[in-house]
């Protein structure tokens, strides 16, 4: 008989068996399909959200053929891509006062063009006042399609209409039909429609036709000196070349002679040979995009673990199915079938159900991506150029699903083929001793897998990371029967139901181990991703440089208009009404020597004074990551050593935010003890007493020597500063004063914007000038857009001249992603626990019937089912957490290797690559999921005995 004939019969039996037990078959298909759905959706999303070169060009230049922009450096030479260019004559002086280029003269003959020019402006909103960019761009023109698209409403037409992006409308409370005023020159506009930039959906901006904003604003400024002229940016152009010709390389070279950079669609897609490109002949090469390979290690690891997850999720279902069909398989033996035929029938089930699950998963993945496309695009911040499907990748994913279905059925097929015909027909399970070799082998494989994954991480080999992670999980899988057997010993002192559940799990390891493995597989992938993301979040938080202390806002007045300080009380009242402030305000003053440089500075550096906090000499006071020998030092540093140096007072001394309008090199602020508690968060009575006694508080110890700090002041006065010139005529004088200071602990060196708090009486004693500059407030939360706009509006109503700055902190998108991942992991784990426990319970129905037959009350049956589910879920979650940490740690080691390479090239670049556990996710998985799974299992278990037909 042909081999194919035997397989044909096995497949026919498997197909009929699948149709007969539709519930179990649907369960297996679901377990195979769910991971395939995820991989398919990930593949399609990744391909769709990653723009092709043609799509990138459309996002930049719309339907035009080229993008023209002024290089502002005179005649240039460029590469065909337009991303690199150089001045033809590097020694030619730049004329900053030269008139802008008439770019229309550089366009090819017979071409058509539209301009793009933006200007920052202050506009009225539903809540108050906001700052934004207004782009003069004819959005209704066909050349704009692809760069700007209409979402709803109408494009603006005429001089009093605007279009807005959706994020702008959400942040300002405006809508289509609303009116807004450009406060800079008082002109009103009506919002006619909502537009979007397909490659940047989060942009907050307004759009107007050319000549609708900048020209009337400039005209108003020409006639009213109180109106400042618009600070418009350089005008760019979208150019449509002659029909059928486009913008050619000779056109680009001609434009380069006038100093215009051109990005031509046809040249980017089909560049000329290097022999025709002068800049290429000099050896200049285009920038390489290295971002494509960055996701290789995580992506390969995720796919490898997804494949293993499919196998382990579907395995219990095939095992239970094989045991439930053992009588049928026994009959196959009585008809002359041997072990080979029994294996073929079980494997045929894997082939049939694996094929259905793989195809279903791919189709559902495509449908899910299409349905959730708007949400995915919103999350990614850009539209798909198109829904990109790679047929070969779709086929590969389906084949992977099919093969993993076969692999999931392989172990149950081996076990089923080893059962004797008599055991199969009578329903007896037989007794088999657990293998003593398997746990030892599993422990060795686990150790080898961990070592390979860690080595792959340190060497940057993504294949070794993926292979090692899967190998470690397989080694842990081999140890599960021993671990489950050990659980039985833990139930001696427990009540009846949990004791029975633990002993039942240990006695029936054949059904408990696959269920635990399935839960472990579901948890491992989620824990790996959550740990990696949590670690990346900790890294981004470390790299983030705040401009203010977290939980504070700063109200400041302009240092250029000294009269605005008079309106500070009204501005404070506006802030206190509009923002979530807690407590009172802490006032500060700016300090300077000589004439105020903010008012009297001109091209002559001697026109005003200067103030400096002097750093004492000594190598220990200089940041070793800058200057000579920095790269040699960086080559010897570990990540932790480099992190400590980056956060040392010497390396923090050069950082200043400029929020407090402080001195050149010292960040000196005149204030009292309120700033210590409100902004610095230094609650030390000794520091407050020092300020009250006239002793400065030094936050960065690098400026102190023997408890003293040195302030150097150049008292230079401008003749335009008539008041002070009369008091201080003659030559400038320079003073150097050593002051006893209170030196704060080293951690306060990281306080943004301040190195020294100087008492007012001490500043006046040193001959320095001070003026009210603003106030600091503590806030309950980061002010929302509405609160900030309301505050700006209230300040303007009070007279203006002041502004509020707040600290938003690092990007919070990772927090939202971690929350979504935690919920997803919980649902997957809960589903896997419920399904596998349900399968195990179905396999143990005879034991439950025996329990009822010996007089156990119905509550015991429910409690037993609940605790069985808890045992499976908790054991699987704990093992899955351990298995998931292996790839997470290995992937972070890959990141560490890359970070160290960058740090050794640029020593001031951070190499900090922490491994941060997602404790909230782990707590939900370890505590919440098993508890919820147990409660659901207990609630859904029937209390009464179900009638069963005896075999035979």
Question: How does this model look, in words?
Answer:
With 952 residues, the chain is an alpha+beta fold. Helix 29 (813-843) packs parallel to helix 32 (919-940). Mean pLDDT is 82; it is low at 290-295. The strands form four sheets. Strands 1, 4, 5, 6, 7, 8, 9, 10, 11 and 12 form a ten-stranded mixed sheet that branches. Strands 21-17-22-16-14-23-13-24 form an eight-stranded mixed sheet. The longest helix has 48 residues, at 858-905. It is 51% helix and 15% strand. The chain is globular, with a radius of gyration of 36 Å.
Task: Determine the strand fraction and express it as a percent band.
Answer: 5-15%
- SSE class: alpha+beta
- The geometry reads as globular
- Biggest sheet architecture: 10 strands, mixed
Helix amount: 40-55%
Total beta strand runs: 24
Oligomer: single chain
Short description:
The protein is an alpha+beta fold. It is 51% helix and 15% strand.
